[in-house]
Amino acid sequence: MKLGRRNFLKLAGAAAAGAAATACSAAPPAQAPTSAPGTSLPPSTGVTPPSGPPDWAALRNKVSLLLPGDSGYENAKRVFNPAFDGLKPAAIAKCAKPEDVQAAVEAAARRVPIAARSGGHSYAGYSVPDAGLMIDLGGMSSVDVQGEQVVIGAGAKLKDVYATLASAGRCLPAGSCPSVGIAGLTLGGGIGVLARKYGLTCDHLVSAQVATADGKLRTASADSEPELFWALRGGGGGNFGVVTSFTFRTDPSPSVVSVFSLHFPAGSANDVLAEWQRWLPEAPPELWANVVLSGGSPVGARVSGCYVGDSASLGRELDKLTSKVKGTRTVKQLDYLGAMKYFSGSENRQSFVASSRILGEPTDPAKLTSILNGRRGMDLLVDGLGGAVADIAPDATAFWHRKAIGSVQIYSQADTRNRSVATGSVAEVVTGIGLSGGYVNYIDPGLPDWMTAYYGDNATRLKQVAKTYDPDKVFGFAQAVTPA
């Protein structure tokens, strides 16, 4: 079975949640410092904010700028989810190089809201700042493989990242939706189908070039701006500054990746989820799998995933699950790029409502299945974690949920006619399943205690990073990490 719309969305991430930016095709490698080694801190200004709107005419002399009424404006402000088509930025800066980002930030800082748009997949539409400045980074999308590393502009889409890496025989674990931007995915952590084998996307980050609120370009790495570097690995899109490029370490691409899908008979959802929770944590890291529960009467269940290795080896692992719960099986043996394409879905815009929870330990399957009973059009997707994800301590990066079994996404179709109903239904399920936590790349404006849900015990340190790099909340939005 080809994973379709609902499945690929689970890995998309909030790619446009405002913070991720991109490197222009002519930009210097992100590892080349643009500030002195160590930490050169921006000042905590305490200065009275400037008055009046930005001087858009002056900015237009420096950057390609679209204003309401300009040709191309309506199309440029559109993001993946049509639900946010009604939002109207005051201006859209179409940036082609890091200096364009600097100019845009300097023009709008503390005057109007600022948000960067990379892939445009923010689940809450946070990359479309109503009456604010959208920094459009789509033109900064180079993918430059340099030996065992790759320098990627923050506007690059996953389909282009995968194609370029595969042609060079390299691999970077990331999400599945082809039009998701590398930026937001990385900044929120980056859960993907190869995560148990290779880790999260953010685990491969070597350095990032960032335009901070004071208008400077900084290089964040283990040796330069180390606290900012820590925060960029899972601290969420939209926070701390605008990233203009990323440098990642890569792995040799696997020669064979076997993909699979398992379908189970009606009425078996509880048994499938119970066995999945037992089976996956005991599986080798080469195996990744999710379990999808589909609302209805009865609730449906299917399991999909991949194995870094041949189909015979995969078959032996699947036997350990299907010996307990019988189902039909489809297996394909592909190369690395073929496997990434297998998990991709349509690039067409999709109207939906979603939220998330974290499966920290095995739960009573009935808690998850009973609340989906009769809810057609709603899916609950549990994406497996463990393996290489859990090998890193929860406080080593900003991504907190290292020891979890999986990330749970609650997803509902929603067009303009039933969006409010779908939003309420998703909220009921989020409350009813009795789980805590949340994945910031499935950002949800209505999530209770969202700061703790997304960041756990890392929240305090993230607030301190915000105090250091954005004391005046230049990059503030509804769920921004703000100064302590």
TrEMBL record:
Pfam families: BBE, FAD_binding_4. Its cofactor is FAD. Residues 27-49 have a biased composition (Low complexity). Keywords: FAD, Flavoprotein, Oxidoreductase, Signal. It comes from the Bacteria. Residues 84-253 form the FAD-binding PCMH-type domain. This is FAD/FMN-containing dehydrogenase.
